[in-house]
Task: structure prediction
Amino acid sequence: LIFQGHKLKQLRESHKPNPLTMQDVYDETGIKPGAQSEIENGINKNPRPATVDKLCTLFGVDAIFFYYDGEDLTGLFPSSIPLNVRKFMFDINNLSFIELAMKIQQTSLTADEAENIIMLYAKSVDEVAAKR
Result:
């Protein structure tokens, strides 16, 4: 998943009641205008999770908003998803699982095969985290 920088610019410029400047965003988040410009212009396609968290808090959006290249998230995830699952899915630190799930969705794997792949992936993520 690649951060869609144009969405940051869109949120900033359409902010109500007044558009936000990069200085305004800096004042609220501590993200320097130069870093914002690199994100908005696609130079930085992978901002740090802490940066994404700050932007999500400021604009009141889930992290997936910045990574999903479509405009409408309603068709991507059913509204019946329990809140705890939704929080996991939209946590910036778990976006790799969403990316994996989207790739699996494009295959002809059975549900059991997909579940096995996700479980193996989760185990490998845990092992990497434990080594840190």
Notes: The longest helix spans residues 111-131. The chain is about 60% helix and 0% strand. The mean pLDDT is 84.
